[in-house]
Amino acid sequence: MGSLKIENIKKSFGSVDVLKGIDLDVTDGEFVVFVGPSGCGKSTLLRIIAGLEDSTSGKVLIDGDNVGNVPPAKRGIAMVFQTYALYPHLTVKNNMSLGLKQAGEPADEIARRVGIASSMLSLEPYLERRPAELSGGQRQRVAIGRAVVREPKLFLFDEPLSNLDAALRVNTRLEIAQLHRRLAATMIYVTHDQVEAMTLADKIVVLNNGQIEQVGAPMELYNSPANEFVAGFIGSPKMNFIDGGRLGEAAKTIGVRPEHITVDRNAGTWKGTVIHAEHLGADTNLYIDTEKAGLLTVRIFGVYDAEPGAAIYATPDPARTYRFGADGRVIR
Ligand SMILES: Nc1ncnc2c1ncn2[C@@H]1O[C@H](COP(=O)(O)OP(=O)(O)OP(=O)(O)O)[C@@H](O)[C@H]1O
């Protein structure tokens, strides 16, 4: 079991309110990702769940028990950090077993759990190596393995992939997704990378400035963002925001994603000029300066040849256009 409930968690550092009342329910087995811009309070919230930081007020309940006075080691959680935090003088095997030895687990049980974890994470060839003899991706797998052997109620990941290069990030992301499926464990994962959030999460919690902006399944946030912040944060390239006044609309802002605009050389809604084309192979990102709607990013599937300076028309899909009020909330 590994359910988590967070009730009205607030945290201030001196006069700075870093978390302003967070409520959240995580059910057993769920993969929940905290995402948000730098400094929004993601790591602080994770550290409060782990017990590494005290909240100023509010409650954390794990499997229904208030863990306010329970030290980190007794909360049934295992945490994986960005920096791996491995012991440099211990072998991979001993890095993974140390916590269990300290907890007094019998040797055969330790061997069994290390065996399972190292096979799951393809670490068998490296068990006798020290961290310095491993690549960054392998080190992070050891750190994850060390968490797995503890069989925790809750896994907490604090930006575990951010020190890896792009290719390794994709591989390790896949491994974490598979691990979640195999263990059916509850995982809480912090990242500022919205692609990681979209691909891993059952449920995404979008944080901004110490508050939750929206909680929902990845496609729910993509299709039905509650407000301008979430609309702009989820999706890449970012949603285009156009001043409603420019378009003669009552809404303060009109939003349309780059992939929901089509282009044509001869006719369309907004006449403009190609500023730049980015050829990504599978898609093309076009930057178009339009008279009516200003600068737009348009994502076209496939190759699209467009010379800077060429005249072009952009047409938004009216069914995929969002309207936001002065308070930033979506108008339905
Ligand atoms: N010990 C501390 N003392 C004072 N301020 C702190 C402390 N720890 C964090 N903060 C501040 O709290 C805010 C939230 O920090 P936190 O690390 O939770 O953000 P984050 O969303 O995880 O950011 P990042 O993505 O950059 O890691 C920041 O403004 C940070 O400067």
TrEMBL record:
Residues 4-234 form the ABC transporter domain. It is found in: Cell inner membrane. It comes from Allomesorhizobium camelthorni. Coiled coil: none annotated. Transmembrane segments: none annotated. Keywords: ATP-binding, Nucleotide-binding, Transport. One of its GO terms (molecular function) is ABC-type maltose transporter activity. PANTHER family: MALTODEXTRIN IMPORT ATP-BINDING PROTEIN MSMX (PTHR43875), MALTOSE_MALTODEXTRIN IMPORT ATP-BINDING PROTEIN MALK (PTHR43875:SF3). The keyword ATP-binding applies. Belongs to the ABC transporter superfamily. This is ABC transporter ATP-binding protein. Gene3D superfamilies: 2.40.50.100, Nucleic acid-binding proteins, P-loop containing nucleotide triphosphate hydrolases. It is a peripheral membrane protein. It comes from the Bacteria. It holds the Pfam family ABC_tran. InterPro entries: AAA+_ATPase, ABC_transporter-like_ATP-bd, ABC_transporter-like_CS, ABC_transpr_MalK-like, ABC_transpr_MalK/UgpC-like, Mo/tungstate-bd_C_term_dom, NA-bd_OB-fold, P-loop_NTPase. One of its GO terms (cellular component) is maltose transport complex.
